[in-house]
Amino acid sequence: MADEEHTFETADAGASLTFPMQCSALRKNGHVVIKGRPCKIVDMSTSKTGKHGHAKVNLVAIDIFTGKKYEDLSPSTHNMDVPNITRQEYQLINIDDGFLNLMTQDGNTKDDVKLPEGELGETLEAEFEEGKDLLVTVVTAMGEEHALTFKEAPKGN
Fold first, then answer.
1. Which H or E element spans position 53?
2. Which of 4, 11, 115, 124 is deepest in the core (most CB within 10 A)?
């Protein structure tokens, strides 16, 4: 009995990280999980049915967080996982030790999102230091969060 109770402690709020979708229903610019990574489909093609009767779907996808390219070949009738992706905009309050201090819509602070690496992070930091009011878009998928874009907040908010 104690084992059964223990399994509930590790469960999340019921939101699944992924959901299944038949390969033939996937579309270009949609999302899919390849090798355990959330990816955006950039190209896909379907081969004819072979002698064993399954059309194959060839997927080319880019990891939404790292930009790495992945390819996968799967029968069109099989299910593949599609990541549940959420986008949320936050106001940037501060940049502290490689992390963004963000304000949520309800006025709470969120400070567990890393400053993006490379040019995006450098530009974000430079514009913030210029005193610009910035909104950062944080994308969440499969338990990972990344700041992928930002823009200047409209004046008069």
1. none
2. 124
Class of domain 85-152: mainly beta
Residue type, 143: G
What is the domain partition of the chain in residue ranges? 18-83, 85-152
Residue 157 has pLDDT above 80, yes or no: no
How many CA atoms within 13 Å lie on the side-chain side of 63?
13
Structure tokens at 143: 């338990």
Confidence of residue 7 (pLDDT cuts 50, 70, 90): very low
CB 34 within 8 A of CB 81: no
SS3 call for 40: strand
Pairing state between β 37-46 and 56-63 = antiparallel
Joined tokens for residue 155: 């004046």
18-83 sits in which CATH class? mainly beta
Token pair 């223990």 in the structure block, residue: 6
Average pLDDT over residues 97-119: 92
pTM attached to this predicted model = 0.79
User: 19: which 2 tokens?
Assistant: 């959901």
